[in-house]
Every structure is written in C-alpha cells, then in structure tokens.
C-alpha cells in the first residue's frame, strides 16, 4: 500500500473516485457536494491531490482546495474504497494530506465541514477545533460548492452560518503544545448531530 501525491498516470482513476464518493454518500444517507471526473483530474494535475494504491488498485483519495489566495485550505473528497475500509487507511490518508498541505500552504488555516463522525475524530486527533462557520472562509465559491448537497436549502436558509455539518479549523499559528483537554467523544458528537437533525429537519 502506498500513499503518494498524484501524477499523470493516476488520471485514469478519476471516474472510479467520483463513483466511490457518491456511492458512499448514498449508503450513509448524508449530503455531499458532488464532484466530476474532470474536476478530480484538474486537482491531480495541480498536485493538489493524494491517492492510495495497492499494487495499482485504487484504495483511497483526498484533495486540497485553497481559498482567499491561500489564506484557507480544505481537504475534500476523502474516500476509501469499500475493499479497504476498517483498516485505518482514512486516517493515514488524512494525515498524509494534512502534512502535505501544511508544507505547500504554510500560512494557511486548514478547515473542513463534515457530518461524518469518523472524519471529525480524525480531524480532532490532528489538532482541529470545532468552530462556528463564521471562522471559516467567506469565499462565495466555497459555499457554492455545497449547492449539490441534499442539505443545501438548510445552509441557504441560515445564510451560510450553520447547517448539519460541523465546522472544524486548524490554525498553524496556534502552538499545538499539549493534547486536547477535551478529547473527541463519539457519543457526545453523535448526540449533538441528532439534535441538529431534529432542529433542521423537522417539518
């Protein structure tokens, strides 16, 4: 198994990556911003993507997006092929792309929005903190990317200030000296997620 920055030889995986991301979202019943093979290929071309391969077989993927002239970066499209799940690969990919983005965009704050508890756990372990959407990028093009998500109307009705997703932020200027005093607790986050769903999805 290898995790590497994408090269031209990896363009052929673009379609499979998109299909795997979309199928995963459907199975989880969660909203997701849809990607196209052309967009994934563009990320590969700009060296803003990493891929996990097992002897040439697609195993996982993630890409970087930058906003406000590199002031913010986000990791998107994190996916692991069904054949390689429950092996800790998602965390390895996330850690790899996290370190890579800090090298490529050393001044940027790293952020993400997600409904996935597994991704929240990984982010928390890397030093991300939950924050209100107001601390994330205000670039309209980022929020425009949410238009294909099934929960977009909720986000729109709240003027991009909140949604079912949780915002998380890593600021490299804040020294990560000590372990978090409030480690990630799946039960607590799952309860908060259900409360959000009850509030936003009620008839």
Please supply descriptive tags for the structure shown above.
203 residues; alpha+beta; Aminopeptidase; seven-stranded mixed beta sheet; 7 helices; 7 strands; 22% strand; globular
Summarize the structure.
The chain is 37% helix and 22% strand. With 203 residues, the protein is an alpha+beta fold.
CATH homologous superfamily name?
Gcn5-related N-acetyltransferase (GNAT)
Helix content: 25-40%
CATH class: Alpha Beta
Order of helices and strands: EHHEEEHEHEHHEH
Number of helices: 7
Largest pleated sheet: 7 strands, mixed
Would you tell me which CATH topology applies?
Answer: Aminopeptidase
Low-confidence segments, ≥5 residues, pLDDT <50? Answer: none
What oligomeric arrangement do these chains adopt? single chain
Just name the CATH architecture.
3-Layer(aba) Sandwich
SS content category: alpha+beta
What's the shape? globular
For the CA atoms, what is the radius of gyration?
16 Å
Count of individual beta strands? 7
Total individual domains: 1
What is the spatial order of strands in the main beta sheet? 1-2-3-4-5-7-6
Nearest-integer average pLDDT: 87
| Distance linking N and C termini | 47 Å
Beta content comes to 15-25%
InterPro entries: Acyl_CoA_acyltransferase, GNAT_dom
Protein name: Acetyltransferase
Domain N-acetyltransferase: 9-149
Pfam families: Acetyltransf_1
């Amino acid at each position: 198994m290898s995790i590497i920055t994408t090269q031209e030889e990896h363009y052929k995986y673009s379609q499979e990556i998109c299909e795997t991301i979309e199928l995963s979202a459907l199975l989880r019943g969660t909203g997701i911003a849809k990607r196209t093979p052309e967009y994934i290929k563009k990320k590969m071309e700009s060296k803003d993507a990493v891929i996990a391969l097992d002897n040439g077989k697609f195993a996982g993927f993630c890409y970087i997006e930058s906003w406000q002239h590199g002031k913010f970066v986000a990791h998107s499209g994190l996916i692991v092929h069904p054949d390689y799940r429950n092996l800790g690969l998602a965390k390895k990919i996330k850690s790899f792309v996290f370190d890579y983005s800090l090298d490529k965009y050393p001044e940027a704050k790293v952020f993400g929005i997600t409904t996935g508890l597994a991704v929240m756990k990984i982010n928390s372990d890397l030093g991300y903190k939950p924050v209100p959407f107001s601390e994330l990028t205000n670039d309209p093009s980022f929020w425009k990317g949410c238009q294909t998500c099934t929960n977009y109307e909720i986000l729109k009705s709240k003027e991009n200030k909140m949604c079912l997703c949780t915002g998380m932020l890593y600021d490299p200027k804040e020294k990560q000296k000590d372990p978090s005093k409030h480690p990630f607790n799946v039960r607590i986050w799952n309860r908060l997620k259900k409360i959000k769903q009850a509030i936003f999805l009620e008839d």
